[in-house]
Amino acid sequence: MTRRNFNRRPDGPGRGGGAAAIAVAVVVLAGCSQPVGEAQPTAPVAADWVMSPMVRSIERTPTALIVKGLAAPQGRVVLHSDGQAAYATGADAQGRFDLRILPPAADTLFAVEARNGQDASPAPYQLLVSQDPNGPLALLAPGAPSVRLDAAGPLDVIDSDGEAALASGRATPGAMVSVAVNGGAPIQARTGRNGRWSVSLDLAAQASPATVTVAGRAYDYPGAAVVGSAGLVTTADSAGWRMGWSTRQGIGQSSWFPRP
User: pLDDT tens for residues 67-89?
Assistant: First the structure.
């Protein structure tokens, strides 16, 4: 089964100690960080001759959301959610695409894929679109930190699979970000060239609340959502949005997005 493997980390700063020890991993994601989007979770992936799309940003307008990214030149890009909402567009000669979608009536996870006749190449992530105009927009993928596309920071999200937790966010490229749990010893994480960082959290109980302090700002993390294998479940309060969601293999995951 596929689980979020937060214990497998790329090279980064060293580990910290204490009752709430945090192991640090800097995850360099391609693309530039802007207030709304400009994130690249992975490079486009070729499957036979079909290249999976890469969402880079989302722009909110009063009547729609504009999803922008890269795909195979002249390729076709499709977004769909459980057979209910489906949108499609074509990429230009440089592979750029702009796809206009309506604001959803409920929080929605979209599958993103390229189409070439009967051949389809799904992206390795799902696109989260909150029905709340102030809610999160993000790319969710098992085994990797969620890539938040709306304005936030310094903490973007805390992801969990019930066994491990991963905090991630944005800051100035090359900057050091201080992260601590429940007043424990802070750990310094350096951001990548795109300004993104991630830190693996050693929490005593995944479902228990904790205070996570990032760059001097304290966040009231409510703990991981207890989720099964069905659908997308959202709990919102004054601190943020907690999403219980499932991978394509039906494995329950949790992502908490603090309010900016």
Answer: 999 999 999 999 999 767 799 99
Instruction: Kindly report the pTM of this predicted structure.
Output: 0.80
**Taking the chain, what is the end-to-end CA distance rounded to the nearest angstrom?**
34
- Domain segments of the chain as ranges: 1-34+142-260, 42-140
**Cβ contact 245:140 at 8 Å:** yes
Distance CA 39, CA 236 (A): 25
27 with 197: CB under 8 angstroms? yes
**Maximum distance among all alpha carbons in the chain?**
56
Cα torsion 69, 73, 75, 80 to 10°: value is -10
Residue 113's H or E segment, with its range, is strand 108-116
Assigned architecture for domain 42-140: Sandwich (2.60)
pLDDT of amino acid 230: 62
61 Cβ contact partners less than 8 Å away, ≥ 6 residues apart: none
